[in-house]
Design goal:
Layout (H helix, E strand, L loop, with lengths): L11 E3 L2 E3 L1 H28 L4 E2 L2 E2 L2 H23 L1
Antiparallel strand pairs: 1-2, 3-4
Helix pairs in contact: 1-2
């Protein structure tokens, strides 16, 4: 599988075909936005002490704090790669 280098401007080839710089930018933009929304929702859940339950298991509030920082890091990384 080929490696996608966001620093190069020309099209690149990977296992699935040719990927243009525009497609790479769209990908980084979309994933950064999704992770930002996830971070906002986890932050909002943490601040407002919303309960969360998955398959009968109560999810501790501190998990949202951890998820907030991870999702925020991924969103920021996506936007940084978008600018390169």
């Amino acid at each position: 599988m080929g490696h996608i280098n966001p620093h190069r401007l020309e099209s690149q080839t990977c296992a699935y075909g040719t990927i243009s710089n525009m497609e790479t930018k769209k990908y980084f933009s979309l994933t950064a936005t999704i992770f930002a929304l996830i971070a906002i929702l986890h932050g909002w859940r943490f601040i407002n002490s919303w309960p969360a339950e998955v398959a009968g298991l109560t999810i501790p509030r501190w998990w949202s704090a951890v998820a907030f920082f991870i999702a925020s890091y991924l969103a920021i990384t996506g936007w940084r790669l978008l600018k390169k």
